[in-house]
Design a protein that fits this description.
The chain has nine helices and 21 strands. By secondary structure, the chain is α+β, with helices and mostly antiparallel strands. It has three domains: 2-77, 2-Layer Sandwich (Uridine Diphospho-n-acetylenolpyruvylglucosamine Reductase, domain 2); 82-229, 2-Layer Sandwich (Uridine Diphospho-n-acetylenolpyruvylglucosamine Reductase, domain 3), CATH 3.30.465.10; 239-354, UDP-N-acetylenolpyruvoylglucosamine reductase, C-terminal domain (Uridine Diphospho-n-acetylenolpyruvylglucosamine Reductase, domain 1, Alpha-Beta Complex). The strands form seven sheets. It has a five-stranded mixed β-sheet with strand order 1-2-3-6-4, covered by helices on one side. It has a five-stranded antiparallel β-sheet with strand order 7-8-14-12-13. A three-stranded antiparallel β-sheet has the order 16-18-17. Pathway: Cell wall biogenesis; peptidoglycan biosynthesis.
Length: 358
C-alpha cells in the first residue's frame, strides 16, 4: 500500500531487504523516501514529535536488519547534489559514493581514489569514517552538515568536531542524534596523480613503492580489481558480494593485551608465528581480523548453510541466496566465539544491527 505525504513517498509494511546489500531483514511499518534536505528534516521531525522509532537508510551497505523487520518509520535518503569548485567537493547525503569517487578521478583530484568500489551513500562515509587501501574520508572531510535531532536544527560541524577515529566518529557514537545531510571534502590537485600510495598491497599491485604517486585512473582501477577479487564490489550475480563487506573491524589492543595475544598465538601456532601488528597510536597496536578468523579455523567458504564466509575473503559473511538474518547472526556468533577461544580477542561487528544484536 502506498500514498503520498506531501512530496515524500510513503509505503506501509514495506520490505527493507531489497534496500540492503545483504538482502536480508523484514519489513518496516512505514517507509519514507526523501529526495531533498527539507523532506529529510520534515520526516525526522515528524517521527521525533510523534515518538516513532526512526531508522535512517542510505545505500544499505552497512545494515543488518532483523527478520521481524523494524517497528517504526524507515527513512530512505535519496537526496542528490554534487558541487565541485576547484578542489572542494560537496555531496548530498544520498549521492552514490562510487559515482562520486569516479567523478573526482575524472576531474584530476586526489584524496579519495583508493575508496573506489565501496558501496553505499556519501552521507554514510563520515559516520563510519570509511576507509580502505590506506585512505580514510576523515583525511579529506572539512565539514559535515547535519540535522541535530536534539537541538532541532541544522548545524555544520568542522572536521575537528567530528571526533573521527578508526571506523568511528561523533555520529556513530551518538546515532540517535545526527542525520547527515551534506558532506564537504577538500581534495588535492596533483597534476592528475594520486595521493601517495600508503597501502602495501595496493603499491605491489601498482608496481610502485609505498609513498609513490601514480596516475589517478591507475589507482582507482587497481583498487577496483583488488576489491573485486575479494568479492567487495557489488554484483547481483555473485553471492560473495551479498554482504556488508568487512563484517568485523580490525582489533586495536593495548600493549598489555597485545602481549597476551601474541603469547596465545605462539602457544597455539608455534614459536615462529608472529601475528600482524600495525602501530595504532601510543601504547596501542592494531592486528588483522581476517588473520584471526582464518587462523581460528574459519577459512574462505566456511559453512554449510545459507549464510557462509565468502569464498574470496574471510572478513565477509555472505547470504548465499536464501539466508535469514538469524542464519547470518548464527555464523557471526560462531566466528566471534571461535576467535575468542583461540586467541582471547573479541571481534566487533562493523555493520549496524537493527532490531537484533550479535
Amino acid at each position: 500500500m502506498s500514498r503520498s505525504l506531501g512530496p515524500v513517498q510513503v509505503l506501509h509494511d514495506a520490505p527493507l531487504a531489497p534496500l540492503t546489500t545483504f538482502r536480508l531483514g523484514g519489513p518496516a511499518t512505514r517507509l519514507l523516501t526523501a529526495t531533498t534536505d527539507a523532506e529529510v528534516i520534515a520526516a525526522v521531525r515528524e517521527a521525533d514529535e510523534s515518538g516513532t522509532p526512526l531508522l535512517v537508510i542510505g545505500g544499505g551497505s552497512n545494515l543488518v536488519i532483523g527478520d521481524k523487520g523494524f517497528d517504526g518509520t524507515a527513512l530512505r535518503i535519496a537526496t542528490r547534489g554534487v558541487e565541485l569548485r576547484g578542489t572542494t567537493l560537496e555531496l548530498a547525503a544520498g549521492e552514490v559514493w562510487t559515482d562520486a569517487v569516479a567523478r573526482t578521478v575524472e576531474a584530476g583530484l586526489a584524496g579519495i581514489e583508493c575508496l573506489a568500489g565501496i558501496p553505499g551513500s556519501a552521507g554514510a562515509t563520515p559516520v563510519q569514517n570509511v576507509g580502505a587501501y590506506g585512505q580514510e574520508v576523515s583525511s579529506t572531510i572539512t565539514e559535515v552538515t547535519v540535522y541535530d535531532r536534539r537541538a532541532g536544527e541544522t548545524v555544520t560541524l568542522a572536521d575537528e568536531e567530528c571526533a573521527f577515529s578508526y571506523r568511528h566518529s561523533r555520529f556513530k557514537a551518538d546515532p540517535e542524534r545526527y542525520v547527515v545531510l551534506r558532506v564537504r571534502f577538500e581534495l588535492e590537485d596533483a597534476g592528475g596523480m594520486s595521493a601517495p600510495v600508503k597501502y602495501a598491497e595496493a603499491a605491489r599491485a601498482l608496481g610502485v613503492d609505498p609513498g609513490d604517486r601514480v596516475p589517478l585512473a591507475d589507482a582507482r582501477e587497481t583498487v577496483l580489481k583488488l576489491r573485486a577479487g575479494k568479492g567487495m564490489v557489488l554484483d547481483a550475480e555473485d553471492h560473495d558480494t551479498w554482504s556488508a563487506g568487512s563484517f568485523f573491524t580490525n582489533p586495536i589492543l593495548t600493549d598489555e593485551r597485545f602481549a597476551a595475544f601474541r603469547a596465545r598465538v605462539r602457544e597455539r601456532l608455534g614459536d615462529g608465528v608472529e601475528p600482524p601488528a600495525y602501530p595504532a597510536g601510543q601504547g596501542r597496536t592494531k592486528t588483522s581480523a581476517a588473520w584471526l578468523i582464518d587462523r581460528a579455523g574459519f577459512t574462505k567458504g566456511y559453512g554449510t548453510g545459507p549464510a557462509r564466509i565468502s569464498t574470496k575473503h574471510t572478513l565477509a559473511l555472505t547470504n548465499r541466496g536464501d539466508a535469514t538474518t538469524e542464519d547470518l547472526l548464527a555464523l557471526a556468533r560462531e566466528v566471534v566465539a571461535g576467535v575468542r577461544e583461540a586467541f582471547g580477542v573479541t571481534l566487533v561487528n562493523e555493520p549496524v544491527t537493527v532490531a537484533v544484536s550479535l
